Amino acid sequence: MTDALDHGLWPWVALICFGFLPSEVWRMVSVFLARGIDESSPWLSWVRAVATALLAGVVGKLLLSPNGALATLPLWGRVGPLAVGMIAFFLIRRSIFAAIVAGEAAIIAIGYWVG
Amino acid sequence: MFMSGAAPHPDPALMAEAAEDLGGRNRRAWFLEGAWQALAGPMLVVAVSLLSVGGLARDAGFSIEVAVASTLVLWAGPAQVLFFGAVAAKASWPAIAFTISLSSVRFVPMVVSLLPTLRTKRTRLPTLLLAAHCIAVTVWAEGMRRIPSVPRDGRLAFFFGFSLICILGTSISTAVGFVLIGELPLPFVAGLLFMTPIYFVATLTRSASRPIDRWALILGLAAAPVTEALAPRGLDLLVLGFSAGTGAWLIQRALDARARI
Fold first, then answer.
1. pTM above threshold 0.90
2. Contacts of residue A78 in chain B, CB cutoff 8 Å?
3. If I label A97, which of A66, A88, B25, B48 is the partner at 20 to 30 A Cα–Cα?
4. Residue B81 to chain A, least CA–CA distance (Å)
């Protein structure tokens, strides 16, 4: 399959047909779904809760079954830094920046210590 | 840096006219304000957390142009990771398209919840479609937090300034990642991949203003191991979103009902 990528236009066709279109269709559909919904609609709070839960689920999946370099760390080495980051978040005036710095410092340190 | 809306005026008709006038003149200012707010943090985080996409694209045998184009047209980190990862793993094209489509269903609740806060009665369809294209996880999470404090007439301008800077910065980082990722030591690559989880959890916690937001976050995280084990592969995120989101919504309803008694 990768050999096919050498042929001029094929990578672009593949990106558009098998990447862009199957993904973009949902955004386009949503524009029409959003039409009838008012900003104050009670449905909106349900939709927003589903979106938030989905996002939390993406995070959970990234930590539970990671790929690439994250997979070289044990589970505690992925969940621990998240806890460290959130402790920093609450200690330092709910700062997103503090959470990132503390979490990153923790995971890089663990990476060197484990590896 | 943050601007206030138009000053109150006694006559509603005159006020509407004045607001429209101000909106026209202020649109560029709100665009720049959005761009500035993205530059001040969120753009850097998305850009850095998606550096690895460039490396993945190179591993899968794509050129740097296609890698950068994938950020512009897909504008969906997980879908890009899936696409290049699956091509590298020599998955079949229909299977790749199907998995990507499944992963992007998550945009539905995001677009449906953000668009009503952005649009005015006069917003045209092409503008809405373009806005929908710009919505990805980061833009959504930050948008839900920042848009309500922007006056209605400036919202779309603010949103486009904000999201275009995010897309532009991430396109550059895709190219940088393409060139650079092989040179980085493993713990730092792990650190790059970890940007997404820590950033999302911190952003969602920060923007959670009601119990329903906090419960959606907690239930969503807690449900991940359960759906991963029980739900059919590829569908687990959808099952998770629906069940944990509905759970949070029911908790909020119960809290509201108790508050009324």
1. no
2. 194, 197
3. A66
4. 10
